[in-house]
Amino acid sequence: xxxxxxxxxxxxxxxxxxxxxxxxxxxxxxxxxxxxxxxxxxxxxxxxxxxxxxxxxxxxxxxxxxxxxxxxxxxxxxxxxxxxxxxxxxxxxxxxxxxxxxxxxxxxxxxxxxxxxxxxx
Length: 121
Known about the structure:
Elements: H1 2-26, H2 30-50, H3 54-71, H4 85-103
C-alpha cells in the first residue's frame, strides 16, 4: 500500500512540474508563485500523508524529472523554459522547497507518546 502511495505521489509530482513549468512563464510573477506554492503543498502533503521523508521525496523526484525533461529544447526550436530569471527561480525554488519539505517531514514516531501509568507497588 505504501509503495502505491509513493508511485501516486511521484506521478502527481510530475504533473505538478509540468503545470508549474507552463504557468510560471505565462503569468510571471504570479504564475511563478502559484507554481512553487503548488509544488510546496504537494511535497509537504506527501510528507504528512505518509509520515516519512520519502513522502516528500517521491513527488519531488517526479517534479524534478518532469521539469528537467522540459528544460531541453526541441530540434524545431520550441522550448518551455526561456533563459530568464523566472525560469531559474522556478528551478532553484522548487529544489529548495523539496529539500525543505524533506528535511522538515514528520518522523514515523509521534512526538509525544502517551504512556500508560505504572501500577504502584
